[in-house]
User: What shape does this take?
Amino acid sequence: MKKISFLVIVFLLLITSKIFAQCDIKNKLLADGTIVYYFDPAVFYTTQSKSLKINIVTDKEHYFIALQPTPFPPKKEGKKINDDLIVHLGDQKSYKLSHYDTQYMRNDSIMQVLYLMDDKDVEAFSKFEAVVAQINMKGTEFIRDYNFKLHKDAIKEQLNCFLKKEE
Assistant: This one.
């Protein structure tokens, strides 16, 4: 009986730690004094030739979807990426996110494109998983469609972590 009780307690501790680990919010102080909060990017799509990582970034006022596509164009071409992002969610609707910024980080080894989530769409993104993203990758090809295979609910889970923290 003691062994069963012990196993139940260990099992509950493992589940609880996994639930809390999902809300591992990080923060960074920007040069202008703004603090941004973010998660480590989750892999949404990967093949031998291309991949896409996504995470939510917020300044506590606005929510952004940050994309890290691979391969990405050289800096000169990448800075031309300024089209909106179209995301299709599990509710079978498409949502347009406005291009906010294109950044090259870590000595230009990572490209990140930020898209601003419209306040009216936050609820939908917090309820439905992402299915497809359409990105115009100027300099490498025309529009890339990423049909999400991995971590489809990462945007939803990350956004819900931020929304719970605000309550």
User: Anything to note?
Assistant: The CA atoms of residues 95 and 120 lie 10 Å apart. The mean pLDDT is 83. The first strand starts at residue 26 and ends at 29. Residues 2-21 form the longest helix (20 residues).
